[in-house]
Amino acid sequence: MNIRFQNLTRVLYFCFILTFLLTSSGYSQEETAKYPSRPITFIDPMLPGNSGDLAIRLLGKEAEKYLGQPIVVVNKPGGGGTIGAAAIANAKPDGYTIGQSSVAASLFVIPYFEKVPYHPTKDLRQIMQYSAPNFGVIVKADSPFKSFMDLIAYARQNPKKLTYGTNGPNSLSNLLMEQIAKKEGVQFTHIPFKSSPDFQTALLGGHVLFTAGDFSHSLIESGQTKLVLLLAEQPRVEYPQIPIPKDIGYEIPFPGMISVTAPKGIPDEIAKKLEEAFTKGMKEQAFLKGMKDLRLPIVYRNSKELSDYVAHNYEFFGKLLKDSGLTK
Question: Looking at per-residue confidence, does 3 or 227 come out higher?
């Protein structure tokens, strides 16, 4: 009798714990099965009109067809992407607030310099990647600098006079430029700006000699600016004649992704629905045409591949920053 009572107690205790876990997590099996039953908020850590912002609006329209609910993009720029990342990480993990990882520094660099309210790998769940941002070194079209090595030659002859703009200190572009300067034994003068439109305006006004970061392809095609180095890990068909860092001897990675991210505790079933919907959406002709118009590449990683990519780069840059004496 005592044994039966003990067994019954264990069963009841297990049921209580299971019920507690399901209700305290904010969703039930029934709610998960019906997901989504209302609009989904999509947090974008960039300003409206940015190429990454336009890309998710393109993909969101196509993913809506498979989810059956609207995807409402909400821009939360600032802090080098950390404000948006924090909003995603701290959202209720029910699938109704997700977002975009389009600022690599917010995952791989800034958390090593500043205390941020999230951990890049422990508090975010990577859903899928569909593109990568266009980052590069840009000069004015009428600049005497015809290549990136012309900039290095100028810096060698004119210490600290080679000025460049990025969208902030500790950005990935800033880190890469300083690593290159260190390798070449030269000194650049970094001038941080709040956004890429700001530093592009400064370049056109002659206030900096080059910029490093995302760029406007329309300014390049209109003959106002010139791309001399593409900051990417692989060559791009959109810019076939432009070298990437490793083409000119710089073995420094420049990870970049435009992807879908969710809070860590999101149920597996909901994460799978989101991954399937966005993956199907990126195969739609309207999305493919829109990305071609934006000059953005199609770069796909599934959830596991993207999670591994983020974890690898988070660890890599932690070691790089420590070995460079930039962090403890």
Answer: 227
How is residue 179 written in tokens?
A: 């690593």
Domain of residue 123, residue span: 35-133+256-323
Please name the residue ranges forming H helices in the chain: 2-24, 29-34, 51-67, 82-89, 105-108, 110-113, 148-157, 172-184, 196-204, 217-221, 268-281, 285-294, 303-323
Residue 191 located in a structural domain:
yes
For the chain, what is the domain count?
2
Per the omega criterion (within 30 degrees of 0), is the bond before 36 cis? yes
- Last residue of a domain, which of 248, 274, 290? 248
Residues 6+ positions from 194 with CB-CB distance below 8 Å? 167, 168
Tell me the per-residue pLDDT of 310-327, one tens digit each, with 9 for 90 and over.
999 999 999 999 988 888
Name the one residue in this structure whose structure tokens are 């992704």: 257
Which distant-in-sequence residues (6+ apart) come within 8 Å of 254 by Cβ?
135, 172, 176, 231, 232, 233, 245
Query: 204 with 167, same domain?
Result: yes
DSSP helix/strand/coil, 35: coil
What are the pLDDT digits (tens) for 205-257?
Answer: 999 999 999 888 889 999 999 999 999 988 888 898 999 999 999 988 889 89
For 11, the token pair is: 């069963």
Kindly report the pTM of this predicted structure: 0.85
Render pLDDT for 160-196 as a digit per residue (tens, 0 to 9): 999 999 988 888 999 999 999 999 999 999 999 988 8
Q: Tell me if residue 224 falls in helix, strand or coil.
A: coil
Question: Among residues of the chain, what percentage have pLDDT more than 90?
Answer: 73
* Ramachandran area for residue 177 (φ above 0: left; ψ -120 to 50: alpha; else beta): alpha
What's the count of helices (H) and strands (E) in the chain, helices before strands? 13, 11
Identify the bridge partners of residue 72 per DSSP, sorted by sequence position.
Answer: 41
